Each structure stands twice: as C-alpha cells, then as structure tokens.
Amino acid sequence: MHIEIDHISMTYQSPDGEVEALRDVCFSVEDRSFVSIVGPSGCGKSTLLSILAGLEHPTEGEVRVDGVPIRGPTEKIGFMPQRDQLFEWRSIWRNVLLGPEVRGDNTKERREMVRTLLSDYALYAFRDSSPSQLSGGMRQRCALIRTLALEPGVLLLDEPFSALDYQTRLAVSADIARIIRQKGKTAILVTHDISEAISMSDRIVVLSHRPGTVRAVHDLTELHGIGPMERRGSPAFQKRFNQIWEELDVNV
Ligand code: ADP
Ligand code: MG
Description:
Blueprint: E1 3-14, E2 17-29, E3 34-38, H1 45-52, E4 60-65, E5 68-69, E6 77-80, H2 92-96, H3 98-102, H4 108-120, H5 136-148, E7 154-158, H6 166-182, E8 186-191, H7 194-200, E9 203-207, E10 214-219, H8 228-231, H9 235-248
Parallel strand pairs: 3-8, 3-9, 6-7, 7-8
Antiparallel strand pairs: 1-2, 1-4, 4-5, 9-10
Adenosine-5'-diphosphate is lined by residues 12, 14, 19, 21, 39, 41-47, 210.
C-alpha cells in the first residue's frame, strides 16, 4: 500500500500549555517498501505512528493510504508495539489467535492461515508452550505473527527490538525484516538506532529535535537487494551511517 504523509503538524494541549511535537512533516512510503524513521528521543516519532495508526488526529495535514485519508483506526494497518505484549496465561497458539478472536473472526480459514504462519516461521512446535518458554527472538516472531494474523497491508513498528540485548537484536531485526519482505508488506519502523535503520530499510527519514521536522530522506538504492546482516560493515553502510550521524546532531 502506498502511504502519503502530507504536511503533518501536531500540537498537544496539556495542562502546562502547548507541546509542539511535529511540524510540517512530509514524506511518502512506496507500496511494499520498508521505511525507517530515526530521530532523537522526544522528537515525535511515536506521535507520528499514532497518527498513521489513526489513533491521534494531526493538528494539520493528512495521511493517505492508497489515496484514502486516514480518519481512525483501520484493519489495513497493523501495529507492533515496543514490548511484545504476549499474555503469559495464554499458549502461543491462543496468543497469535487473539486478534481474530477479539474481532470475532476466529474461523477455520483464519486458524489455517495462522497455523501456516507458525509452521513457516518455526513456531508450530511451540504452539502449546507459554511465552516465557520462548527465547526473545521467538517471542518477537510470535508478536509479528499475531499482527500478521489480521492480514494488514501496512505494519507499523515502534522500537520493537529495544528490549532485546545487542546480539539478539541483530539476529531478530534481520529475521523480522526478512518475514516482512517475504509477505510483501509495507512497513514503517521507528527506531533511534541508525544501524538498525540502515540494515533493514529502503528509505530512511531523519527527524530533527522536537518539534520533529524532516531533516533528510535517504534512499538506500546502493543497498537494495542486500540482506540486513550483509549490509552491516559494508563501505556503503558506513557512509550512510556517518551522514545520518551528522544529521542527527547527537549531543552528549
Ligand atoms: P518520541 O517517540 O520521538 O520519543 P513522542 O512522539 O513520544 O516522541 O513525543 C513527542 C513530544 O510530544 C514529547 O515532548 C512528548 O512529551 C509529547 N507528547 C507525547 N504525547 C503527548 C500527549 N498525549 N500529551 C502531551 N504531550 C505529549
Ligand atoms: Mg517513542
């Protein structure tokens, strides 16, 4: 699905006054492409995802999905949160079926589809396990399958790997990127990790400090078709890293 973020501004009204979170943000996301948004903490990344998910209404501008403005939450858009939010009292099977159950769509076809997803991604043998019996990577895959079970065209991911240790994070992010591409989904990932963004994406949008404005847009054409792990360490990777590092203007 093709997404247009068209002159989005967002100002929150809070008891202490106004908070300008985003200012005049414009970029687009091509169908079946992977776009990352990087920016310093507090610059409005989660706000932007909430707007994309239809959970918040921008003060100005609009977001269109295949030309249709977003007015509220829609089934076309799936969300993968920061923590995997698997329920310990439910088996893996019942965790991934949660969405269809809540939606009243727990049909034979749906269950068949979820079963295929679990076996394609090496989780079927764990269908009766509880989440705590799975590794961090498996839990993350399970969370992704739960989102995919509702067949969204667009996936929104808000720092989904931040709870994982560094090594696990490398492997899991590569794994998740592969599944998302295989399934032909359009994905938008929010991260503050430049390396993660370069390893997974087709395009990177760099946001400034709050209020978030678009500092730069990088099309990673030179890395097209190269897997996440192979990208890391390549000269092209290093070059992009340095550019984005400069743009982020990190102060310590
Ligand atoms: P990020 O995800 O980039 O860290 P956020 O989108 O969470 O940033 O927040 C951007 C700014 O908007 C922050 O200053 C935050 O405190 C503020 N903010 C976020 N949500 C609200 C809200 N519901 N009400 C008031 N201010 C908010
Ligand atoms: Mg955030």
